[in-house]
Design a protein that fits this description.
The complex is a heterodimer of chains A (274) and B (190).
Chain A (H helix, E strand, L loop, with lengths): L1 H89 L9 H29 L2 H6 L1 H14 L4 E6 L8 H22 L3 E9 L2 E8 L6 H9 L4 H13 L2 E6 L6 E8 L7
Parallel strand pairs in A: 1-2
Antiparallel strand pairs in A: 2-3, 3-5, 4-5
Chain B lengths: L1 H12 L1 H8 L1 H23 L3 H24 L7 H24 L10 H22 L5 H39 L10
Chain lengths: 274, 190
């Protein structure tokens, strides 16, 4: 009797245990498959978001290029074109029929117009690629830029480089200069500030630039929001350049709440790299 | 897979001869050891984490030592139930480690497209389905064993079907990669 009971309980344990193990095993396999599907869906979504972001950055970059070309075309067409056309008017075939005084006056006028055109083209060229940057470095290029801004009389722009004995690589200098240019443009266009002050320093293996201004500014959260939106092309380009430099940018309001600061941090060049 | 198929075919085919020469206890131990070795090798070859691989080696050595001690010091009547129980727990742990590693890999390929997944599922179903039977085998009467032994064939068949599918997947994947790596001649239109 006891043996019968024992054997029937063994059989019960056997069947219940086997069914339990099988249920656990199947449950584990199903869980693994479902979990992996969830992870894959999430990864796919991330990939799609990344592609979307890259598309936006590319569009912003192309749009910026087109705007730059349009501005260049407009400058040449609206300014250089009429000037050269006017100079041509002064130097027509009838000049030989005029008296010496009128001839000299026409030549002088034409020369003046051509000089103005040369200066205009030089300015356009400098805007595209400032020779000061290439020949004398970032400090001189920013100094030139700030002198032009201060020269207008509306904004007081100044700069101070504390430690720039070792220049950055030319490619890096150009990127940093473009970032500063874009930031300054934004400040002049949108912030209505009365002063802009730039400071530079070096700490460890990092190169720092900070722009202070007292107008309407943005903070880091605004920068990130604008970067993700369809507007703010200039800021998107700043973001791309910062990423290229493997640097960081921080938009903040000073503790005194009287001015805004934009800090750019860029890794310095490896001293042994060419 | 070929080695596994041949080894177990021979073990089962020559069951009577081998038990007559070496005894039931040696046969059971050898069967369990071979089964453990082959299942572990599948998982070992597909895990990339070095720490888990080291742990598998250490645990396997421990299992071999345990089996040797168990075989020579304890007279096994019937099946080596304790060794089978330990084998099941170890293999379950290895399979869970394999799945955990697959989760962490960023891949667009689904886990069930990996041939080792189906080997692991086969191992889990086979061991899970027959675990209690093998553990209680020495406590059951001969009549019960004769009555219920055939049920273990169900999980055995399931395991073999899943192993066959994994071979199919392995061969198919190898074929696809082979095409990708093929060097094509210049096919430009002239």
């Amino acid at each position: 009797m006891f043996l019968l009971q024992a054997t029937s309980s063994t059989t019960t344990v056997l069947f219940l245990g086997t069914i339990g193990m099988l249920v656990l095993t199947i449950g584990l396999v199903v869980f693994i498959i479902m979990h992996q599907r969830r992870v894959q869906r999430f990864q796919q979504k991330l990939q799609e978001m990344e592609i979307e972001q890259q598309k936006m950055m590319l569009n912003a970059s192309i749009k910026m290029q087109e705007e730059e070309r349009q501005r260049l075309a407009a400058d040449l067409h609206d300014d250089a074109g009429p000037l050269l056309a006017t100079a041509r008017l002064y130097l027509n075939e009838n000049l030989v029929n005029q008296d010496k005084v009128n001839q000299l006056q026409s030549i002088f006028q034409a020369r003046q117009i051509i000089d103005d055109t040369i200066q205009l083209i030089r300015n356009i060229s400098h805007d595209l690629m400032p020779p000061t940057l290439k020949n004398f470095g970032l400090e001189s290029a920013i100094n030139d830029l700030f002198q032009k801004i201060s020269g207008s009389g509306t904004v007081n722009a100044s700069q101070r480089f504390h430690d720039y004995k070792d220049r950055l690589k030319p490619e890096k200098e150009l990127l940093v200069f473009r970032i500063v240019q874009e930031l300054i443009n934004n400040i002049l266009k949108h912030s209505n500030s009365s002063f802009i002050h730039l400071t530079q320093n070096v700490h460890g293996d990092k190169f720092y630039l900070r722009i202070h201004h007292d107008g309407r500014g943005i903070v880091q959260s605004d920068f990130e929001k604008l970067n993700k939106s369809n507007i703010g092309l200039g800021l998107k380009n700043i973001g791309s350049r910062i990423r290229l430099l493997q640097g960081e940018i921080l938009f903040e309001k000073d503790i005194s709440q009287t001015y805004y600061k934009v800090t750019i941090e860029v890794p310095k060049d490896d001293p042994y790299s060419s | 897979m070929l080695v596994y198929s041949i080894a177990f075919f021979l073990l089962l085919y020559y069951y009577k001869t081998l038990t007559k020469w070496f005894g039931q206890d040696f046969y059971s131990t050898a069967y369990t050891f071979l089964e453990y070795l082959l299942f572990t090798s599948f998982i070992f070859l597909n895990i990339s984490n070095k720490r888990i691989k080291k742990a598998i080696i250490i645990l396997s050595l421990g299992f071999i030592i345990f089996q040797s001690v168990y075989l020579f010091n304890i007279h096994i009547k019937g099946l080596d139930t304790l060794a089978i129980g330990i084998e099941t727990i170890l293999l379950f742990s290895y399979v869970i480690c394999f799945f955990h590693e697959q989760f962490k890999k960023p891949t667009s390929l689904s886990i069930y497209n990996h041939y080792c997944f189906w080997i692991s599922v086969g191992i889990l179903l086979y061991l899970g389905g027959s675990f209690f039977f093998y553990i209680l085998a020495n406590h059951m009467t001969k009549a019960e064993i004769d009555q219920y032994w055939d049920l273990t064939y169900i999980v055995e068949i399931l395991k073999n079907i899943l192993f066959s599918y994994s071979v199919f997947l392995f061969v198919r994947q190898k074929g696809e990669n082979g095409y990708k790596n093929k060097i094509l001649p210049n096919l430009d239109m002239v």
